[in-house]
Amino acid sequence: MTTKWILKKKYILGQLDRYKARLVIKGFTQVKDVDYFETYSPVASAVTTRIFLTLTAYYDLELSKLDVKNAFIQADIDTELYVWPPEGYGLEQPTDGRTAILYKIKKSWYGAKQAPYLWHQKLSQWLLKVGFKHGSADHCLWKYKLQIANGEVTALMLCTVVDDILVAYHHSFTNTYQNFLAAFKEFTEVKLEDPNQFCGLQIVRYRSHRKIILRQTHAIKAFLKEHRFDKCKAENLPAPAGQILSVLDCPDDGSSEQEQMKSFTYRSVVGVCLFISVMTRFDITFAVNSLARFGHNPGLKHLNAAKHLCRYLNSTVERGLILGNNTDQVGASSTKPSGLEVFCDASWASNVDDRHSTSGYGYTFQGSLIAWWCKHQFILAKSSFESELIALYGAVTELTWIRSLFKDFEIDISLPRN
């Protein structure tokens, strides 16, 4: 196998932190069932992360972040792999028939298809060994003696996304946290960082009000600058009023409009906007959902709608998601959660191409929006009542999983009874 040098700049909160060079394997040359077997590695879902931060703010827990350095090479490789010497090392692959020099890989390496899986396995085994238990609904949520009673919480919780780990703990668990940190540093090389950024999310905390604001300001600014939307005019809505997009607006094969669309990275723009909408910006979910249906063959009308969305993001780049105590009560009087609330609705026959409806769901906990979806209904509804019934079914389906997730946080969400 061959290797490659990856050179990039590392930014923290929009500021250049350091220059980074990493040697990686060209994993696309690996052969399944020969060079690798299992590749799946779970990460904490966006919903889990938001609930984690909501409870951290609501119960006024301590919050810290751990960054594992060179996480993938901490685990042993599970197959026999050999690589050529890296470029610039002076022992490149010979072309004149001389004996080749190869290196045998002993550790999991960046670029290898099984590297994330091996790291997750090693981390999970160690956390289980020291007394942590993973959640049943999300295996990237780890808890140590988590208990919520009488409006108080005693806990040490972890939320893992590959090599980034959020830690939340009650002040009474400070010694336990210090012991865990010391043991973790013996297990692997780890860096303790300020929890103001996590997987591209900016975390702004207001402890006196028991609130956390999640933003993606720097990610949105970088995206807009890359696609030259950073100096465009402002828009007040994510989509023009009365906008209707259809497959009839897609260009014909070989037309001049289709050639013109090749100069605009439509899929890239919609993909980034989709990630932003999933993490913090629920206000653009419907607009992105509409644009994503035409990624196979977008036309100029779809392009203008995407540009309109980018202009809206440019004018609302500082907006964020408020988590924690979103009521007027602060302090001891707010220690009893108000429970989980679910909202759902449907736009009947809103798709002009197939006359299918669109469902929308929203889930709040203590006034904090923790989950939302906008989905195209695959069943053709014959009335607005039927479309809303389908939306209700989808909302309850997601609610079943969210209830399981809250049980992992030791919070029992009871369903209403007649």
Give an overview of the whole structure.
By secondary structure, the protein is α+β, with helices and mostly antiparallel strands. It is built from nine helices and 17 strands. The strands form five sheets. The protein has a six-stranded antiparallel beta sheet, with helices on both faces. The longest helix has 25 residues. The protein starts with a strand and ends in a 10-residue tail after the last helix. About 2% of the residues have low confidence.
In short:
With 418 residues, the chain is an alpha+beta fold.
Tags for this model:
418 residues; alpha+beta; 6-stranded antiparallel β-sheet; 4-stranded antiparallel β-sheet; 17 strands; globular
What's the layout of helices and strands?
Elements: E1 3-12, E2 15-25, H1 46-58, E3 62-68, E4 82-83, E5 103-104, H2 115-129, E6 133-134, E7 141-149, E8 152-161, E9 164-169, H3 174-187, E10 190-193, E11 197-198, E12 201-206, E13 211-215, H4 217-226, H5 256-261, H6 266-279, H7 285-292, H8 300-315, E14 321-324, E15 340-347, E16 358-365, E17 368-376, H9 384-408
Antiparallel strand pairs: 1-2, 3-9, 3-10, 4-5, 6-7, 7-8, 8-9, 11-12, 12-13, 13-14, 15-16, 16-17
Helix pairs in contact: 6-7
